[in-house]
């Protein structure tokens, strides 16, 4: 019996939706962005199986600055803000968001950021889009003052729908053990200083997208509610990247090498002020926040109006204009305020710590 010849080519990885060649092109396109984040502590060529980072080098950094160094690490993503980015085909800033969400958590511990890795999950590999996303990660690392030493781009057409993607990151930093922040240091009479957010940041976007659908909002439209404040479209305002506070916080903490002027800190993410300030409080004190002490950005008022969202829910979901909070000893409040403002932050006294039970109270009253 004559042998049968195959009637078609055999199955391939590319045919199943994974293009290795496109992945290689994406890696080549993003190498320059990665290299910009590298200092003398990054070792080895790009493209290895793992990144190498020296904890010390010729300047004897750790010997000089750290007697008992402790590594701090965290991981986070950008949430459903990536859905908005994909819908608008705007890929340049979600990488900054990814870095910000991790680094802002890291510095709460008093840590100096060292290096960062990212994970990108894709429906299919489009080298130009991937390069734009990872270039945003690199830009975030430049702002944060850390090295992007590696990452992963995973092409999974069976997991992600056409056009969808997800991004997550992993940050490592270092802190001197006796300088690490500790909620137990917080005392009644500490003053709470709030650093302004750049907008919605990267939390609450499931509600944001629900409001957009509910009110039939046009992401390409420049709404009159923002006139005089912001001339961008609604989509551009919502994609404003999360502010990265690391340079400010690291510099302020270095200024006080002996006295523990900053009792503790909080990154205001999902849960808003009530759901994050309580994480920095011991059980014998409360945080009292005066919500009239800062101007809530127009984007939050816009979302609240078009979604008919209750005030309590807004403060429970969004940062409402405050992205980071420091609890500071009273005698050093003016000094810290001067420093953070000089470093480019819009900073305000937003409340105080009083005796209590580890709770957060939002009140409205005259500004201090």
Describe this structure as you would to a colleague.
This protein has 368 residues and is an alpha+beta fold. The protein folds into 2 domains: 14-179, 60s Ribosomal Protein L30, Chain: A (2-Layer Sandwich), CATH 3.30.1330; 183-363, Phosphoribosyl-aminoimidazole Synthetase, Chain A, domain 2. The protein is 33% helix and 23% strand. It contains 12 helices and 12 strands. It has helices spanning 20-35, 61-65, 81-88, 94-108, 127-144, 205-214, 234-238, 246-255, 272-277, 298-307, 311-317, 333-342; strands at residues 42-43, 52-53, 69-77, 112-122, 147-155, 165-176, 191-196, 262-267, 285-290, 322-328, 347-355, 360-363. The strands form 3 sheets. The protein has a 6-stranded mixed beta sheet with strand order 8-10-7-11-9-12. Strand 1 (42-43) and strand 2 form a beta hairpin. Helix 1 (20-35) packs parallel to helix 5 (127-144) and helix 4 runs parallel beside helix 5. 40% of the residues are buried.
Strand order across the largest sheet: 8-10-7-11-9-12
Strand content: 15-25%
Low-confidence stretches: none
- Spatial extent as radius of gyration: 23 Å
> Helicity range of the residues?
25-40%
CATH class of the largest domain: Alpha Beta
- Pairing-aware structural class of the strands and helices? alpha+beta
Question: How would you name the CATH homologous superfamily of the largest domain?
Answer: PurM-like C-terminal domain
CATH topological fold name of the largest domain: Phosphoribosyl-aminoimidazole Synthetase, Chain A, domain 2
Give the SSE order as H and E letters: HEEHEHHEHEEEHHHEHEHHEHEE
The CATH architecture name of the largest domain reads Alpha-Beta Complex
Average predicted local confidence, pLDDT: 88
Distance between the termini: 96 Å
Give the overall form. Answer: globular
Number of helical segments?
12
**How many E strands?**
12
What's the assembly state of these chains?
A: single chain
How is the biggest beta sheet arranged? 6 strands, mixed
How many structural units, i.e. domains? 2
